[in-house]
Design a protein that fits this description.
Glutamine Phosphoribosylpyrophosphate, subunit 1, domain 1, 16 strands, 7-stranded antiparallel β-sheet, about 20% helix, about 35% strand
Length: about 270
């Protein structure tokens, strides 16, 4: 299946280090050769790059590994096609507008039965079950909340419940964002790490690259990275349990347990 990568931070931060790691899994250290995409939120805008070529061989991917686009919210996806041909229109992440915001979605897994769900306001461009699920999910949000709800937990709980519905149609690991929050729902496998002071060095699992974050951050920085599989081999990542969701705002996590309870996730050591 595919792999996901997301970032939430309290200050604009580049993702070059993590992108270098995950792109190697797109045909070099991993089998995910069927395209990739990444979305960077910049203020009210959203800059998206897609390429149906393998990430490990893509010139666009090499550019992004060197070019430090700074963002507080990022969603990335590398694809191993299971539904829909290898084509630009089938590469994640997908984007639609709601409430004057760019909503971005990426999915890992299979939810073929979700293609039977009725669509209202949004239609897929490609042929994947993932894009159909996104169109249904965002349509559900729009029907329930024609305007943004005043209490963000009301929206959080609704998204969690609809993600559970989609999980019932197969395997549904999801990253969803609107530039303000990053929703990470886990069906089978998803992990995250929050880096904050005191920062240390991190070493990629899939490439010979190490960064000492103490040299490129300030003591007030909070940066969380979410991935299908941990990207580093000297840090302790926290797994999201199946059926759970973690919501990240400005790098700070908020866990939703499978029974719908909100609680802060446990603190874990960062470095081994």
């Amino acid at each position: 299946m595919c792999e996901l990568l997301g970032m939430s931070a309290n200050v604009p931060t580049d993702l070059c280090f993590s992108l270098t790691g995950i792109m190697q899994r797109g045909g070099s250290t991993g089998p995910h050769r069927d395209g990739w995409g990444v979305a960077f939120y910049e203020g009210k805008g959203c800059r998206i790059f897609h390429d149906p070529a393998p990430g490990a061989e893509s010139e666009i991917a090499r550019l992004l590994q060197r070019y430090p686009i700074r963002s507080c919210n990022v969603i990335c996806h590398i694809r191993l096609a299971t539904t829909g041909r290898v084509a630009l229109e089938n590469t994640h992440p997908f984007r639609r507008e709601l409430w004057g915001r760019h909503w971005v979605f990426a999915h890992n897994g299979r939810v073929p039965a979700a293609k039977k769900l009725p669509l209202s306001h949004y239609r897929p461009v490609g042929t994947t079950d993932s894009e159909h699920a996104f169109c249904w999910l965002l349509g559900e949000i729009r029907d329930r909340f024609p305007e943004p709800p005043q209490r963000r937990r009301t929206l959080d709980r609704f998204i969690f419940e609809r993600a559970q519905d989609l999980d019932g149609h197969g395997i549904f690991n999801m990253l969803l964002g609107d530039g303000r929050a990053l929703y990470a729902y886990c069906s089978t496998r998803l992990s995250w790490i929050t880096r904050r002071a005191p920062f240390g060095a991190a070493h990629l699992t899939d490439a010979e690259l190490e960064v000492n974050f103490a040299e490129v951050t300030t003591p007030n920085d909070i940066v969380t990275v979410v991935a299908t599989h941990p990207l580093t081999d000297n840090e302790t990542w926290t797994e999201i349990g199946p059926g759970g969701m973690v919501i990240f705002r400005a790098g700070t996590p908020q866990e939703v347990t499978p029974d719908g309870r909100f609680r802060p996730p446990p603190e874990t050591p960062k470095y081994l």
